[in-house]
Amino acid sequence: MVAYAFPQLVMSKACEVREPEWQEVHRRLKRIAKKRAALDREELELIRAAIRVALWRHLGRTSIREYLEVECGYGPHVASERVRVAEALDSMPALEQALGEGELSYSAVRAISRVATNRTEDD
Questions:
Q1: Which of 1, 33, 47, 48 has the smallest number of Cβ neighbours within 10 A?
Q2: Mean pLDDT of 65-94
Q3: Side-chain half-sphere exposure of 73, counting CA atoms within 13 A
Q4: What is the CB neighbour count within 10 angstroms for residue 85?
Q5: pLDDT digits (tens, 9 = 90+) for 28-77
């Protein structure tokens, strides 16, 4: 079973692309992924700071989750997961650093933080 079917015309044109062009596309996509990882780390740090200062109360919200839903546009599940991961990383600095440096994606950190603890973080 094929996950994605591309029209033959697209595939033949893809094979004709100059090598420097595909390298540039690859380089730019990798740069975006690295920036996204750094932004994810920064956001998780700020979520922890928002929790410390009860930011949502100053803006008339009932919780950090509601704040993230209304102000950041996250759905309920995503807001809850962001808070959970932010709180988990508070005790796992190596995992947070790996996210910030682009060594791990947010998705990987989210999955690892479900099972890892500060004692098992290095494993």
A1: 1
A2: 96
A3: 0
A4: 25
A5: 999 999 999 999 999 999 999 999 999 999 999 999 999 999 999 999 99
Q: Retrieve residue 89's tokens.
A: 């990383």
User: How many Å separate Cα 29 from the centre of its chain?
Assistant: 15
Torsion region of 115: left, alpha or beta (phi above 0 gives left; psi -120 to 50 gives alpha): alpha
Q: Quick one: which H or E segment has residue 38? A: helix 19-52
CA–CA gap between residue 87 and residue 44 (Å, rounded)? 8
Token couple for 24: 């540039």
Strand locations in 20-98 (E): none
Query: What is the spatial distance between Cα 62 and Cα 84, in angstroms, rounded to a whole number?
Result: 17
* 96, burial (CB in 10 Å: exposed 0-12, middle 13-18, buried 19+): buried
- Residue ranges of E strands in 4-113: none
Handedness of CA 102, 106, 107, 111 (dihedral sign): positive
Give me Rg for the CA atoms of the chain: 19
DSSP track, 58-101: HTT-SSHHHHHHHHH---HHHHHHHHHHHHHHTT-HHHHHHHHT
Q: Is 81 helix (H, G, I), strand (E, B) or coil?
A: helix
